[in-house]
Write a structure and sequence with these properties.
Elements: H1 2-8, H2 11-39, H3 42-49, H4 65-75, E1 84-86, E2 95-99, E3 113-117, E4 124-129, H5 134-144, H6 148-173, H7 180-183, H8 192-222, H9 224-231, H10 258-265, E5 273-278, E6 287-292, E7 304-308, E8 315-319, H11 326-332, H12 334-339, H13 344-372, H14 383-415, H15 417-446
Antiparallel strand pairs: 1-2, 1-5, 2-3, 3-4, 5-6, 6-7, 7-8
Helix pairs in contact: 2-5, 2-6, 2-13, 3-5, 6-8, 8-13, 14-15
C-alpha cells in the first residue's frame, strides 16, 4: 500500500498538482493578493483620494456625541432605527456614523451607509454607501469577489487551495541540506526565463509563511462555523456584537443621551478608549458601547463592551476581553491578524508585500509555462540595457516622488510620521544610488 502511494505521489505528480492549481485558480489568487494588499492601507488610501475627509488644522475639543448624532439624523431624517457612531482614528480623521441596512442596498450582503462627520464642528462632510467607493469596492472584491454569500465561501475555499499550492511549491523547491545554498543563487546568465524562475522560487520561499497564515486565517473567517468548532468558542467572529439585550425599564420622558450613556459605561474601564456607540432601536432598544483597552489587538472592532439602558441609565451587562479564554482570544484575534493591524506598522507592510508577491508568483510561473510551450521566447539578461532602463526609471521615480511629497507631505505627516521618516530615508538612498550610477555611466562613456 505504501509503495503504491509512493508510485502515485511522485515528483511529477506534485509538479502537475502545482501547475494545474496555478493554471486554474492562479488568476483568482493573484487578484485576491493584489486587492488584499491594497486593503491593508484602505483607510489611508481613502483619505488620500478624498481630501475632504482629512481635517487640516484640528483645534479645540470634539463636539458631544449627541450633537454629532443630531447632525447625522438631520442629514438623513428618513432613516429610522439604530446608528453606530465610530470615533475618529486620529485627531485628523472624521467620525463615521454607520447605518447597517439602508433601503438602497438592503438586499446586498454588506453595504451600509457611511456618514462622515467632522468631530470638531459636528458638520456632515460626506454620505457614501459601502461598495460605491474605490477602497470598499476593492475590499468587497477581496472578500467576496462581488458574488455575495457564494463569493464569500468561494474565497475561503481558494484559501485552502492556496495552502495546497504553497505546500507543493515548498516540496518541489526543497533541494536537501547539501544543496540549500545553491538553491538560493539567482542564475542571471542563463536567460530571462531562468532568472524569472529563480525569482519565482526565491519570492515563494520567503513569502510562504506569511501566505500560509493569510490563507488559513482567510479560510477560517470565511467559514466561522468551522473556526468555532475547532477552538470551541462561539460568537467571536469579526463584527460580533455580543448578546442581544433589551430594555426592561419603563419608557419615560427623560431618556439617557449618548454622552451620558458613554460616561456611565466608562466606569468599569476608566482608562479604555471609546471607539463606538450604537444607539437604541425602538422602545426596547439599548445602548451598546465599545471601548478598546490597551492590551487589545483589535484596533477598530475591540471587544470591550458595555450595555446601558437608555430609560434607567444603568449598566445592564459588561463584556471584558481580559476574562476571555484562550480559545476566545484566538477567535477574536483572527481578523486583526489577517488584516495586519495586530502586527503594527512593520507587520502591515509585510502583509502588503506578501499580497503583492502572489501576483508576481502567478506572472513568473505563467511566463515559464508559456516559454515551455513555445509561446514566449527566452532572451538574454542584458544588464547594460537594464541598467539604463533602471536609471531612467529611478530618475523619473525620484522626480515624481519630489512632486508627490510636495503635495501630500503635510497630510501624510499628520497621519503617519513614521511612514514619512521611512520615505525620506528611501529618497536619500535613492539619490545615492542615482549619483553612483550616473558617475559609473560617465566613467563607462569616457572609456
Amino acid at each position: 500500500m505504501k509503495n503504491s502511494a509512493q508510485r502515485i505521489l511522485t515528483r511529477a505528480t506534485w509538479i502537475k498538482i502545482h501547475l494545474y492549481l496555478a493554471l486554474s485558480i492562479g488568476l483568482f489568487l493573484a487578484l485576491l493578493g493584489l486587492t488584499g494588499s491594497i486593503s491593508v492601507y484602505r483607510e489611508e488610501l481613502d483619505e488620500l483620494l478624498n481630501p475632504q475627509l482629512v481635517i487640516d488644522n484640528p483645534q479645540g475639543h470634539y463636539q458631544s456625541l449627541d450633537r454629532m448624532m443630531v447632525a447625522v439624523r438631520e442629514a438623513h431624517p428618513e432613516r429610522h432605527g439604530s446608528w453606530t457612531l465610530e470615533m475618529p482614528r486620529t485627531p485628523y480623521s472624521m467620525a463615521t456614523a454607520w447605518y447597517d441596512k439602508p433601503r438602497e442596498t438592503f438586499f446586498e450582503l454588506y453595504a451600509p451607509l457611511m456618514v462622515s462627520v467632522n468631530p470638531y464642528t459636528a458638520d456632515v462632510v460626506a454620505s457614501r454607501f459601502w461598495g460605491q467607493t474605490l477602497t470598499t469596492w476593492l475590499l468587497d472584491l477581496h472578500t467576496q469577489l462581488h458574488w455575495g454569500r457564494f463569493g464569500w465561501k468561494m474565497v475561503g475555499f481558494l484559501g485552502v487551495l492556496l495552502m495546497v499550492s504553497i505546500s507543493t511549491g515548498l516540496y518541489l523547491w526543497w533541494p536537501g541540506v547539501k544543496g540549500l545554498w545553491k538553491a538560493l543563487i539567482l542564475h542571471h546568465k542563463n536567460g530571462m526565463i531562468r532568472l524569472l524562475f529563480d525569482l519565482h522560487r526565491f519570492v515563494g520561499l520567503f513569502s510562504a509563511l506569511a501566505l500560509l497564515v493569510l490563507a488559513l486565517s482567510g479560510f477560517l473567517l470565511s467559514y466561522p462555523v468551522i473556526m468555532e468548532t475547532l477552538v470551541g468558542a462561539s460568537g467571536m467572529q469579526h463584527g460580533e456584537t455580543g448578546r442581544t439585550l433589551t430594555s426592561t425599564a419603563v419608557p419615560n420622558n427623560h431618556p439617557t443621551g449618548l454622552a451620558a450613556a458613554a460616561f456611565v459605561a466608562q466606569a468599569p474601564f476608566p482608562k479604555a478608549q471609546l471607539r463606538r456607540v450604537t444607539t437604541p432601536a425602538g422602545n426596547t432598544g439599548i445602548y451598546r458601547i465599545n471601548f478598546r483597552q490597551g492590551f487589545e489587538i483589535n484596533q477598530r472592532h475591540p471587544y470591550t463592551t458595555v450595555w446601558v439602558d437608555r430609560w434607567s441609565g444603568q449598566i445592564k451587562e459588561v463584556r471584558n476581553p481580559a476574562n476571555f479564554s484562550k480559545s476566545e482570544r484566538f477567535a477574536s484575534g483572527l481578523w486583526p491578524l489577517h488584516t495586519g493591524e495586530a502586527l503594527g506598522a512593520t507587520g502591515r507592510f509585510a502583509w502588503f508585500a506578501a499580497g503583492q508577491s502572489l501576483f508576481f508568483l502567478y506572472v513568473s510561473g505563467l511566463m515559464r509555462w508559456l516559454n515551455q510551450r513555445g509561446v514566449v521566447k527566452d532572451r538574454e539578461v542584458n544588464f547594460a540595457g537594464l541598467q539604463l532602463v533602471c536609471l531612467r526609471a529611478l530618475k523619473q521615480a525620484y522626480s515624481l516622488s519630489l512632486q508627490l511629497i510636495s503635495f501630500t507631505r503635510r497630510k501624510l505627516k499628520q497621519h503617519a510620521p513614521y511612514i514619512i521618516r521611512q520615505y525620506w530615508t528611501l529618497i536619500f538612498w535613492l539619490r545615492r544610488v542615482i549619483f553612483v550610477m550616473l558617475k559609473r555611466q560617465k566613467r563607462i562613456g569616457k572609456n
